[in-house]
């Protein structure tokens, strides 16, 4: 059983029989169906059923020559219609299943972002070579099994302008350092030392979450899991009609990167509001527009 099923409203799926019923429903009336013919005549197929807005279940497998469908794997998904970034994306096939993960570098995150590729069939159709970067539009989203609502940080217009200036300057230095500019590297090193000193003084009298407004940190042994803190830009509450479980969908600004996060109402501590923050662990997913890569 996929452990993130509860994030899209399937917390009571506890047996193989329950899962088989759910797969049968998804296959009977898929919202989206994609297919590609392999070299040996097999029909690689991807069927997605949207149970509630932006959330559902995707099944991948193949039809044999007799027309029987064999399930390779399945996964719950949360989709996003917002383009998170346009960047170079590298796709790699997973070892355990016929699935793919993507990786990209974004200066706003300060780390390489690894995500589970939602639209693998689209990638397979283009017959790209793995490990080769492709310029594309990327929409990131995530599923969470535990989260908490934090209060937002009150800011003045002056502090917002100062923060924006500092952010622009730091990103420019990061770009220069990436190209090997030694002066930029030295400047960033001094800034980090100064920041560490200021944080050490503030943490003695202030709460951690009044200092750290946003964060994006790899979490655990899974490469596509992250612990994030981000500001809620918008939110909605949807109901999975199959189970009548409520699912929150949160539009999060994390380090100036916008993500759509789905989490079961049972697993979210606190009430979301615009301006408040979400802190939680997410499984990162991504939909890549490979058309723009051609």
Helix content: 10-25%
Contiguous low-pLDDT stretches (5 residues minimum) are none
pLDDT average, as an integer?
84
Beta-strand share of residues: 35-45%
- What's the shape? globular
Largest sheet: 10 strands, mixed
Protein model, in words:
The chain is α+β, with helices and mostly antiparallel strands. Among the domains are: 3-78, no CATH class; 155-208, no CATH class. It has 5 helices and 14 strands. The chain has helices spanning 16-28, 120-126, 157-178, 182-202, 208-211; strands spanning 32-37, 43-52, 55-63, 69-78, 85-93, 100-105, 112-117, 134-150, 215-218, 225-240, 245-254, 257-264, 268-269, 277-289. The strands form 2 sheets. Strands 5, 6, 7, 8, 9, 10, 11, 12, 13 and 14 form a 10-stranded mixed β-sheet that branches. It is globular, with a radius of gyration of 21 Å.
């Amino acid at each position: 059983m996929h452990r993130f099923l509860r994030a899209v409203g399937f917390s009571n799926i506890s047996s193989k029989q329950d899962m088989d019923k759910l797969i049968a429903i998804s296959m009977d009336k898929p919202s989206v169906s994609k297919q590609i013919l392999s070299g040996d005549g097999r029909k690689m197929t991807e069927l997605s059923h949207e149970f509630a807005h932006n959330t559902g279940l995707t099944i991948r497998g193949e039809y044999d020559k007799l027309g029987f469908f064999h399930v390779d794997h399945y996964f719950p998904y949360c989709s996003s219609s917002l383009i998170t970034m346009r960047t170079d994306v590298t796709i790699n096939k997973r070892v355990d299943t016929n699935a793919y993960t993507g990786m990209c570098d974004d200066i706003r995150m300060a780390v390489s972002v690894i995500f589970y590729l939602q639209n693998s069939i689209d990638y397979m159709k283009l017959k790209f070579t793995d490990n080769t970067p492709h310029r594309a539009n990327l929409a990131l989203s995530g599923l969470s099994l535990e989260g908490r609502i934090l209060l937002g940080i009150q800011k003045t217009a002056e502090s917002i302008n100062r923060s924006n200036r500092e952010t622009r300057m730091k990103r420019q230095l990061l770009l220069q350092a990436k190209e090997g500019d030694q002066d930029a590297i030295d400047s960033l090193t001094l800034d980090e030392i100064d920041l560490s000193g200021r944080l050490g003084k503030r943490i003695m009298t202030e709460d951690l979450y009044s200092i750290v407004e946003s964060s994006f940190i790899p979490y655990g042994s899974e490469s596509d899991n992250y612990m994030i803190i981000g500001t809620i830009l918008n939110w909605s509450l949807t109901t999975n009609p199959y189970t009548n479980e409520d699912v929150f969908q949160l539009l999060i600004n994390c380090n100036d990167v916008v993500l759509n996060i789905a989490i079961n109402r049972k697993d979210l501590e606190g009430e979301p509001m615009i301006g408040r923050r979400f802190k939680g662990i997410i499984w990162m997913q991504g939909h890549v527009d490979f058309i723009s890569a051609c």
